[in-house]
Each structure stands twice: as structure tokens, then as C-alpha cells.
Amino acid sequence: MESRPLPPDPRRRRAPVFRPRFTLAILYLVGFFFLYALLLVVPELTDVLAQTPPGPEQEELARSASHKAIRPLLPLAAGMALLSTLAGAHFQVLPGLRD
């Protein structure tokens, strides 16, 4: 009598595929936040760079101008980053967040 191999169990499932959607969404959110924060500060920094000569004074003026400019705009940068991430995920244009 020959022994035949057992057929595979049809109820057995494949191992789940790892898809780091949440991690990627957080990285996109942080990336968009820094992009928008930088874009909101650039006009103030260009004014400082155009008006003052290079040196330590320029660095200090640029630092204080960027702090003053970004402080009231942080919620705007965060909101735009959140909306960009949600829209990118919804319309499936962000790599890694597509189905």
C-alpha cells in the first residue's frame, strides 16, 4: 500500500503581507509639515538676507525673524499637512498608501 501525500487544507490561509500604511502616513504628514513650514518662512528669510550683510548678525536676525514668522503660522502648516496627507491617501497618489 502506497502512502499518498495529503492535499493542502483549503481552510489554511496565506501569511498576511506587511503593509506599513500607518507608518508611511505619519512620515508623509511630517514631511508635508516641514515642507509647508519652510515655504511659509522663506519670504521672511529672503528679506533678512537681502537687507543685512553676511555675518553673525545676519544669522541672529534670520533666526529671530524665522521664529517670529512661523509661530503664528504653525497651525496653518499643520492643517495643510494633514489635508495634503488625507487627500493623497484618498485619491491614492501617495506611494505606499495605495490599495
General description of the model:
The protein is mostly helical and 99 residues long. It has a domain of 52 residues. Helix 1 packs across helix 2.
Question: Main traits of this protein?
Answer:
single chain; mainly alpha; 3 helices; rod-shaped
What is the topology?
Elements: H1 21-51, H2 56-70, H3 74-90
Compose a concise summary of this entry.
This protein is 64% helix and 0% strand. The chain has 99 residues and is mostly helical.
What are the secondary-structure elements, in order, as H or E? HHH
* Helicity, as a percent range: 55-70%
Which residues sit in consecutive blocks of at least 5 with pLDDT less than 50?
none
The whole-angstrom Rg is: 25 Å
